[in-house]
Amino acid sequence: MKLLRILTLASCLACLLANTAALAAPSNTDLAKEAQNPIANLISLPLQNNMNFDYGPYDKMQNLLNIQPVIPISLSSQWNLITRTILPVLHQPNLRRKSAYTSGIGDLNPSFFLSPAKPQAIIWGIGPTFMLPTASNKALGLGKWSAGPSLVVLAMPGHWVLGVLTYNIWSFAGQKSRASVNMFELQYFINYNFPGGWYLTSAPINTANWNANSKNTWTIPIGAGFGRTFSISKQALNISLQAFTNIKHPRLGPKWSMRLTVAFLFPE
Fold it and tell me: I need a surface site. Which of 23, 68, 127, 185 has the fewest CB within 10 A?
């Protein structure tokens, strides 16, 4: 049944992307590369839906929708400030009751990257990231104010977009009854672009909870997928589908996942 779900979703997405062939413009390949750059001078609204399977003690599905607008701000002719905010919307199984679920928003994660306005062969951005205790339910957030440094480094040689985005955050305030936060995230991304806006992609998100014991510290996924950048009327879109298996995960963490991303792009 799980394999059937994957094949059905992949087939539907492939049909959707294929049916937009007549709408593709030659510039879609360049726009695809720009959309794959987390700190591009491009306003975008990605909606990233993660379906995490075999989650919790009863092997249920957790659904995590990340609403993550990216807004660049020109500071001068030499520098841009890229704002990237992630608002998670969750629907996840209760860890104690087999048939119960909890839904709502999670902790807000704004990041700010200072980046050269005229990037060279190596593109980079650096700045602070924050985790704000905005969760609508205790089960959906950390209950702490946290902050730390964040870094993006990438290159775009030929058809490739290769890079890494990473941060580490530590808690400094919040509910005293909640555990302190010391968390690490690293997302590498490997994209190969074809004509017409099509591309292959692999962008797993690796995380570590340094305060957990050694068996529950890491989540390490591997996987890949495909996508396409195209336009419907005057609206540019970037749609991708990826699947991952977690070769290492906490005891109650998901064993595998699928990620469907629909990004609205607003090029100048």
Answer: 23
Dump pLDDT digits (tens) for 126-144: 999 999 999 999 999 999 9
Q: Which of 141, 55, 67, 140 is nearest to 110 (CA)?
A: 67
For 199-224, the pLDDT digits (tens) are: 999 999 999 999 999 999 999 999 99
Q: Which region, left, alpha or beta, applies to residue 217 given φ > 0 means left and ψ of -120 to 50 means alpha?
A: alpha
**Structure tokens that stand for 86 in this block:** 């992630």
Phi and psi at residue 33, to the nearest 5°: -65, -40
Q: What are φ and ψ of residue 149, in 5° steps?
A: -85, 150
User: CB of 64 within 8 A of CB of 83?
Assistant: no
Q: Which residue has the higher pLDDT, 26 or 40?
A: 40
In whole angstroms, give the CA distance from residue 85 to residue 65: 13
Among residues 219, 221, 220, 155, the alpha carbon closest in space to that of 190 is found at 155
Closest CA to 94 of 142, 61, 131: 61
pTM for the full predicted model: 0.89
Instruction: Confirm if 48 and 227 have CB atoms less than 8 A apart.
Output: no
pLDDT for the residue 27:
66
Answer yes or no: CATH 2.40.10.170 is held by domain 2-266. Answer: no
Give the separation between CA 123 and CA 137, rounded to whole angstroms: 38
B/e letters for 134-151, b = 16+ CB within 10 Å, e = fewer, are ebeeeebbbbbbbbbebb
